[in-house]
Structure formats: structure tokens, C-alpha cells
Amino acid sequence: MPVTAARVVKAVQKVSSAPAFARIAPHVVPALDRAVHRLTRGKVLLSAQLLPGVVLTVRGAKSGQPRHTPLACMPEGAEGAEGADSGSGGSWLLIGSNFGRTGHPAWTANLLAHPDAEVSWKGEDIPVRARLLAGEEREAAWKALLAFWPPYATYQARVEREIRIFRIVRR
Fold first, then answer.
1. Helix orientation angle between 151-158 and 19-39, rounded to the nearest 10 degrees
2. Are 168 and 115 in contact (CB under 8 A)?
3. Among 6, 94, 139, 161, which residue has the fewest nearby CB atoms (within 10 Å)?
4. What distances in angstroms separate CA 59 from CA 41, 110, 115, 124, 156, one per listed residue?
């Protein structure tokens, strides 16, 4: 059988749903993303070769120091998730899955404390404001996220906490 992009994505989805991936990925993926992002002056995120991604810069909830976190995202708006190209004039969904680990990722606490942040999107630094989604708005976003990246369902099934979903919009 020929190797197609769809087969590669399915294989990556299967691997990313594995418990071993949840133990290893949080230590490896962000470090690689930060290094590649720095070396390419913000133009490339390694993980964004499969899923769109941003580097979120937000002040630490306790320290107040800038924290830079590479994250997968789902673009919304002008070109939406299908185009996933510009996000210009639109917004992005960020999901605090923490690879299906028990605690909320630190960046989510940072956004709750300091909703004004910045994202690096394809080499452009964009000031944004974040909002934690709840109720029907969260449910609609969750359905869209599951269609976009099905392993999020596996991550949610592994944890008792409700995975946080943020919508970030240009300021």
C-alpha cells in the first residue's frame, strides 16, 4: 500500500493516543519545538508539520515572567480549520490536554491569571486575548476539536478533570 498523508496522520494519531506518548511527549515535543522555532526565527514549528501550532507567550501566574509554550491549535475565522493557513482576522482554539496527563498544563493557569498574551503564528507575533470556554460554547468547540484531532477524546477519557479550552482572539 502506498504511503499517503492520510495514512501518516492516522498513524500519528494512534501513536499520540498511547499512554507511553503521554509520558514522553511533554518532555520532548516542546523542547524540540522551542529549538526549531528559535533557529528559524519564528517561522517553523516542528510539531506544526502535522497540526497547526503557535508559540504562546504569557506571563506566569505566580512569577509574572514571560513563559513561551509551543502549542497545537485549531485556527478559526477567515480560513478556519480547513484552510488552517492564516487565521488572520480570526481566532484560534487552544486545548489544555496536557497529552492526557492528570493535571492542567501550567500555561492554562497562566492564561487564567493573565488573559492578555501573544502568539507567534507562522513568524508573526500577534497580541491576543484569551477566554476560557464554558457551557454550550465549550461543547461546540469540543466537537470541532474532536473532528480536527480525534486523539483529544482519548486524552479526556484518561483524566477526571475537564480539559480546558481557550479561544484566543487578536487584540
1. 120
2. no
3. 6
4. 21, 6, 9, 19, 27
**By 3-state DSSP, what share of the chain in percent is helix, strand and coil, each rounded to 5?**
45, 25, 30
Q: What is the DSSP letter of 115?
A: -
This model's pTM is above 0.85: no
With contact defined as beta carbons under 8 Å apart, do 68 and 19 qualify?
Answer: no
Q: What is the pLDDT of residue 16?
A: 75
| Residue 118, beta-bridge partner list | 57, 127
* C-alpha to C-alpha distance for 80 and 92, rounded to whole angstroms: 9
Instruction: Return d(Cα 94, Cα 57) in angstroms, integer.
Output: 13
Answer whether residue 13 shows pLDDT above 80.
no
- How far is residue 86 from each of residues 79, 126, 159, 165, 166, measured CA to CA in Å? 7, 12, 33, 21, 19
Pairwise CA distance, residues 126 & 123, whole Å:
10
* Cell numbers given for 154: 482519548
